[in-house]
Design a protein that fits this description.
CATH topology of the domain at 2-98: Rossmann fold
Radius of gyration: 17 Å
Number of helices: 5
Oligomer: single chain
Distance between the termini: 31 Å
CATH class of the domain at 2-98: Alpha Beta
Order of helices and strands: HHEHEHEHE
Strand content: 5-15%
CATH superfamily of the domain at 2-98: Response regulator
Structural class: alpha/beta
Largest sheet: 4 strands, mixed
Helix content: 40-55%
Length: 139
Protein backbone atom coordinates (compact mmCIF):
# COMPACT_ATOMS: atom_id res chain seq x y z
CA UNK A 1 0.00 0.00 0.00
CA UNK A 2 2.71 2.51 0.93
CA UNK A 3 4.53 1.95 -2.37
CA UNK A 4 1.36 2.79 -4.32
CA UNK A 5 0.75 5.93 -2.25
CA UNK A 6 4.32 7.08 -2.84
CA UNK A 7 4.03 6.47 -6.59
CA UNK A 8 0.73 8.38 -6.66
CA UNK A 9 2.32 11.27 -4.79
CA UNK A 10 5.28 11.34 -7.18
CA UNK A 11 2.99 11.37 -10.19
CA UNK A 12 0.72 14.09 -8.79
CA UNK A 13 3.53 16.43 -7.80
CA UNK A 14 6.17 15.79 -10.43
CA UNK A 15 5.65 19.23 -11.97
CA UNK A 16 5.25 21.18 -8.71
CA UNK A 17 7.63 22.47 -6.11
CA UNK A 18 7.99 19.57 -3.75
CA UNK A 19 10.68 18.35 -1.46
CA UNK A 20 10.47 14.58 -1.16
CA UNK A 21 12.08 12.35 1.45
CA UNK A 22 12.25 8.60 1.23
CA UNK A 23 12.70 7.73 4.85
CA UNK A 24 14.32 4.57 6.23
CA UNK A 25 12.23 1.62 7.34
CA UNK A 26 13.47 1.15 10.90
CA UNK A 27 12.68 3.61 13.68
CA UNK A 28 16.32 4.01 14.70
CA UNK A 29 17.36 4.83 11.13
CA UNK A 30 14.41 7.24 10.75
CA UNK A 31 15.35 9.15 13.89
CA UNK A 32 18.91 9.56 12.60
CA UNK A 33 17.54 10.59 9.21
CA UNK A 34 15.23 13.20 10.76
CA UNK A 35 18.07 14.53 12.88
CA UNK A 36 20.37 14.81 9.87
CA UNK A 37 17.78 16.43 7.58
CA UNK A 38 15.22 18.52 9.48
CA UNK A 39 17.29 21.72 9.37
CA UNK A 40 17.34 21.50 5.57
CA UNK A 41 13.53 21.30 5.71
CA UNK A 42 13.38 24.47 7.80
CA UNK A 43 15.91 26.33 5.64
CA UNK A 44 13.86 25.43 2.56
CA UNK A 45 10.82 27.20 4.09
CA UNK A 46 8.69 24.07 3.82
CA UNK A 47 5.21 24.88 5.13
CA UNK A 48 3.55 21.45 5.01
CA UNK A 49 4.42 17.77 5.19
CA UNK A 50 2.31 14.98 3.73
CA UNK A 51 3.22 11.58 5.15
CA UNK A 52 2.31 8.30 3.50
CA UNK A 53 0.56 7.19 6.70
CA UNK A 54 -0.68 8.59 10.00
CA UNK A 55 1.98 6.53 11.77
CA UNK A 56 4.82 8.35 9.99
CA UNK A 57 3.08 11.72 10.26
CA UNK A 58 2.70 11.36 14.04
CA UNK A 59 6.25 10.10 14.48
CA UNK A 60 7.68 13.05 12.53
CA UNK A 61 5.42 15.48 14.38
CA UNK A 62 6.71 14.22 17.73
CA UNK A 63 10.28 14.59 16.46
CA UNK A 64 9.64 18.19 15.35
CA UNK A 65 7.90 19.07 18.60
CA UNK A 66 10.98 17.76 20.40
CA UNK A 67 12.93 20.38 18.44
CA UNK A 68 10.47 23.09 19.58
CA UNK A 69 8.93 23.37 16.14
CA UNK A 70 5.27 24.32 16.46
CA UNK A 71 2.64 22.30 14.67
CA UNK A 72 0.75 23.71 12.73
CA UNK A 73 2.14 27.24 13.18
CA UNK A 74 5.62 26.45 11.81
CA UNK A 75 4.89 23.31 9.76
CA UNK A 76 1.55 21.71 8.94
CA UNK A 77 1.34 17.91 8.87
CA UNK A 78 -1.10 15.66 7.04
CA UNK A 79 -1.25 11.88 7.26
CA UNK A 80 -3.15 9.11 5.50
CA UNK A 81 -5.34 6.42 7.14
CA UNK A 82 -7.47 8.27 9.71
CA UNK A 83 -6.47 5.84 12.42
CA UNK A 84 -7.41 6.18 16.09
CA UNK A 85 -4.06 7.75 16.99
CA UNK A 86 -4.66 10.57 14.49
CA UNK A 87 -7.85 11.49 16.35
CA UNK A 88 -6.36 11.23 19.82
CA UNK A 89 -3.06 13.03 19.23
CA UNK A 90 -2.59 16.54 20.54
CA UNK A 91 -3.25 18.48 18.42
CA UNK A 92 -5.28 16.03 16.34
CA UNK A 93 -3.89 15.09 12.93
CA UNK A 94 -5.39 16.22 9.64
CA UNK A 95 -5.56 13.09 7.52
CA UNK A 96 -6.92 11.39 4.44
CA UNK A 97 -9.69 8.90 5.19
CA UNK A 98 -10.35 5.92 2.99
CA UNK A 99 -13.07 3.47 3.96
CA UNK A 100 -11.39 0.29 5.21
CA UNK A 101 -14.45 -1.77 4.32
CA UNK A 102 -14.24 -0.72 0.68
CA UNK A 103 -10.52 -1.59 0.56
CA UNK A 104 -11.21 -5.00 2.09
CA UNK A 105 -14.13 -5.70 -0.26
CA UNK A 106 -12.05 -4.80 -3.32
CA UNK A 107 -9.16 -6.96 -2.13
CA UNK A 108 -11.43 -9.96 -1.46
CA UNK A 109 -13.09 -9.62 -4.86
CA UNK A 110 -9.68 -9.62 -6.55
CA UNK A 111 -8.49 -12.63 -4.56
CA UNK A 112 -11.65 -14.56 -5.35
CA UNK A 113 -11.30 -13.73 -9.05
CA UNK A 114 -7.66 -14.86 -9.02
CA UNK A 115 -8.63 -18.08 -7.26
CA UNK A 116 -11.38 -18.77 -9.79
CA UNK A 117 -9.25 -17.85 -12.81
CA UNK A 118 -11.60 -14.99 -13.66
CA UNK A 119 -10.63 -11.56 -14.92
CA UNK A 120 -10.11 -8.85 -12.32
CA UNK A 121 -9.20 -5.20 -12.22
CA UNK A 122 -5.49 -4.52 -11.90
CA UNK A 123 -6.09 -0.92 -10.88
CA UNK A 124 -8.77 0.09 -8.41
CA UNK A 125 -9.41 3.68 -7.38
CA UNK A 126 -11.30 4.15 -4.13
CA UNK A 127 -12.78 7.44 -2.88
CA UNK A 128 -11.01 9.41 -0.16
CA UNK A 129 -12.02 12.25 2.15
CA UNK A 130 -9.86 14.95 3.68
CA UNK A 131 -10.45 15.04 7.44
CA UNK A 132 -9.41 18.53 8.57
CA UNK A 133 -8.20 18.64 12.13
CA UNK A 134 -5.78 20.74 14.16
CA UNK A 135 -2.48 19.93 12.42
CA UNK A 136 -3.21 22.30 9.59
CA UNK A 137 -3.99 25.99 9.63
CA UNK A 138 -7.30 27.35 8.46
CA UNK A 139 -7.03 29.48 5.33
Amino acid sequence: MDKERIEGFRKAFEQGETYRWEIPKTEKERMHFYEDNYMQLLKSNVTAVFAVSDFYALEFMRFLQGKNIRIPEDIQIIGFDDNMASRESNPSLTTIHQEAGLRAKAAIECLEAMRDGAEYKTEIVLPVDLIKRERTRKL
